[in-house]
Design brief:
By secondary structure, the chain is α/β, with parallel strands linked by helices. It contains 14 helices and 8 strands. The protein has helices at 8-21, 31-50, 55-62, 70-77, 119-124, 132-147, 165-169, 172-185, 200-204, 225-232, 239-246, 250-256, 274-292, 297-312, and strands at residues 78-83, 96-103, 106-113, 152-158, 190-199, 211-215, 219-221, 261-263. Strands 1, 2, 3, 4, 5, 6, 7 and 8 form an 8-stranded mixed sheet that branches. A hairpin with a 2-residue loop joins strand 2 and strand 3 (106-113).
Length: 318
């Protein structure tokens, strides 16, 4: 397992456990008993460490290379998934994945941003950074959900939209804006889940849901801590301070009303128990879908629009 900087004491304990498990001749030592003691220490250390993570440490957890990504959630939650490709205008952007399937008995349309797990898949999916054709593909799938009156589920995990010259030349800002506009205009239940990084407009393009769920150690912000630091301090060295100032954690965003629910992760983060993390999020999505399914399309649309308008209204000062 890949350990983060602040997990060094945990890594040392787990290293000792592995050493004990590989012993073939331990003499009078009761290996099982020693392993159980060390496992108890690991659990206690994980509990205390993850109970007081700083925003920068949460950023590291959200970016953990072994954290489950969009396609892992699709595989774990969506049955009979049929992927749909292309924006019907330019190309198929592999950073955006989507299609139709069944979620716990409900026919749904799924959209997500996929980062990839290894070098090959990360290059294929452009590290989860979508280009204009990706957002136009997402918009097409949103229209499909609306046309067939199917709930829309989205999975957000991106550091941001692709910032290349070619993307700008093909109308990156317009594509994101149209995607947001379409999301706000839907007359079907729309549930967005932030499963890792929610970076800038590239994330909100597929996150204008009736319900916005966010995993416990995910992050969601207008800009990455490094990007913020490079603008404000002209140095990426201030990323930790930027993460603190941005209020990008799920707990902060719940207080501000930007998201609707924090979904608990397994002890030590989603990367330690991916199946449990996927199941927990599935339960939260199911509950949200049940709450929204009784509303007429016009009500869903107006409530969603009002929700995002409320975020932009200034609080009265006294």
């Amino acid at each position: 397992m890949h350990f983060l900087d602040f997990e060094k004491p945990i890594a040392e304990l787990e290293g000792k456990i592995e050493e004990l498990r590989h012993l073939t001749d331990a003499g009078d030592i009761n290996i099982a008993e020693e392993v159980a003691k060390l496992n108890g220490k690991v659990e206690k250390l994980l509990r205390t460490t993850y109970a007081k993570l700083t925003p920068w440490q949460k950023t590291q957890v959200a970016r953990h290379p072994e954290r489950p990504h969009c396609l892992d959630y699709v595989q774990g939650l969506i049955q009979d998934f049929v992927p749909l490709a292309g924006d019907r205008a330019f190309a198929d952007d592999k950073a955006v994945v989507g299609g139709m399937g069944r979620f716990r008995g409900h026919s749904v349309v799924v959209i997500g941003l996929e980062k990839g797990h290894d070098t090959e898949s990360r290059i294929k999916h452009n590290f989860g950074m979508a280009k204009p054709e990706g957002y136009r593909k997402a918009k097409r799938l949103m229209h499909l959900a609306d046309q067939f009156k199917l709930p829309l589920l989205s999975f957000v995990d991106t550091s941001g939209a692709y910032p290349g010259v070619d993307a700008e030349a093909r109308g990156q800002a317009e594509a994101i804006a149209r995607c947001i506009e379409t999301g706000l205009d839907l007359r079907v239940p729309y549930i967005a889940s932030v499963i890792g990084e929610g970076g800038s407009g590239g994330a909100i393009a597929i996150a204008t849901g009736n319900a916005i769920l966010m995993q416990e150690h995910a992050i969601y912000s207008v800009i990455s801590p490094e990007g913020c630091a490079s603008i404000l301090w002209r140095s990426g060295d201030q990323a930790k301070d930027a993460a603190e100032a941005l209020k990008l954690t799920a707990q902060d965003l719940l207080k501000f009303g930007v998201i609707d629910q924090v979904v608990a992760e397994p002890l030590g983060g989603a990367h330690r128990a991916p199946a449990a993390a996927i199941r927990n999020l599935g339960d939260a999505i199911e509950a949200s879908l049940k709450d929204l399914s009784g509303f007429e399309g016009g009500v869903l649309r107006s409530r969603r629009r009002e929700k995002f308008l409320d975020m932009g209204r200034a609080l009265p000062t006294h």
